[in-house]
Design goal:
4-stranded parallel beta sheet; 11 helices; 5-stranded mixed beta sheet; Rossmann fold; 2 domains
Length: about 350
């Protein structure tokens, strides 16, 4: 009877608990697998800190946000006590036969390296940015879009009351999927994404056109958006756990520029971590549960070095190499399709 360790790593995300629940319920029922959860991501694997996972401990989890296992930015190779040799010893001591790593690009990269170094490991993709090319959708994305759409709806009512231009900043380092989908859903008058630079003159023209029609402009901007004269995405908060610039605040740069150029009173709102929190949507609960169930099939068949993914409506398997080959960014034609109605 195989014992499987589950960990959640990187940023938290609505649907993580539903993955854990799906894996434990199917793994126990169909394959007789036993489960433990490593606490706080890779740290728990490195230090051998676990909690038991069984049917009773995952009861009712699908609607809960966050992760009962905790998460962290600790890497399995960056920690001084990490490395495949030490991790193999920890797994042997705990009598854990395989690891399910739930996370985004950084987690998949670490899992790929551990697999190459002999660790029995499989993965489940997670990112609210929806920027992993190997899967059509990642759980958490739909929830983030719903939260951002509600924020747009709320900002439009206060913007209309004061006849202001409202600028909402959402997450999206390299990919503008959240901005695009929530902007379309909320009827934004301009959507600014990392993949498609727009000049300040163009943004001002859109905003002015809206104002001239007697409306209050609504602009949605992804955190990774850059104006043509910006060398890099706006960052004033140092580096994150993966040594990447911690983004945030481009809306607060953009708003005064728009006000100065157009004369329209403008306010900025940075949505931030609100997009990560709370209960997942029904779509994300279903997707996360299906992925959790499917990853137990991978473990049962010893499909090490692979992760599960969504293609169309089917759950498929892809190797870590394929999963990490490309970022999934917004195609030019998909952006241009909606750009024609800006302003």
């Amino acid at each position: 009877m195989a014992t499987v360790g589950i960990l959640t790593s990187g940023g938290d995300c609505p649907g993580l608990n539903a993955v854990i629940r799906g894996a434990v319920l199917k793994g126990e029922t169909v394959y007789g697998q036993r489960f433990v959860g490593f606490l706080d991501g890779w740290r728990g694997l490195i230090e051998g800190e676990v909690m038991p996972l069984d049917r009773s401990s995952v009861r009712g989890l699908s609607h809960e946000g966050g992760t009962i296992l905790g998460t962290s930015r600790v890497g399995p190779y960056t920690d001084p006590h990490g490395g495949a040799e030490n991790i193999a010893k920890v797994l042997d001591t705990l009598q854990v036969d395989a690891v399910i790593a739930i996370g985004g690009e950084g987690t998949a990269s670490a899992a790929k390296r551990l697999y190459a170094d002999g660790i029995n490991i499989v993965g489940v993709p997670k990112t609210i940015d929806n920027d992993l090319d190997a899967t059509d959708y990642t759980f958490g994305f739909d929830t983030a879009v719903e939260i951002a759409t509600e924020a747009i709806d709320r900002l439009r009512t206060t913007g209309n009351s004061h006849k202001r231009c409202m600028v909402l900043e959402v997450m999206g380092r390299h990919a503008g999927w959240i901005a695009l989908y929530s902007g379309i859903a909320g009827g934004a008058h301009a959507i600014l994404i990392p993949e498609q630079p727009e000049s300040l003159d163009q943004i001002c023209a859109w905003v002015t056109s809206v104002k001239d029609r007697g409306r209050s402009p609504m602009v949605v901007v992804a955190e990774g958006f850059r104006l043509p004269d910006m060398d890099s995405a706006h960052s004033t908060k140092g580096l994150d756990g993966f040594n990447r610039p911690r983004l945030g605040g481009v809306a607060e740069v953009l708003a005064p520029l728009l006000e100065e150029r157009t004369g329209i009173e403008t306010r900025a709102t940075v949505l931030g971590h609100i997009q990560r929190g709370g209960s997942p949507t029904g779509f994300d609960r279903v997707l996360a549960t299906r992925l959790g169930m499917a990853v137990t099939d991978l473990v049962a068949e010893k499909g090490w070095g692979h992760m599960v993914a969504l293609r169309g409506t089917d759950i498929v398997r892809v190797g870590f190499d394929e999963a990490l080959a490309n970022h999934k960014t917004v195609p030019v034609d998909q952006y241009q399709e909606i750009r024609v109605i800006f302003g």
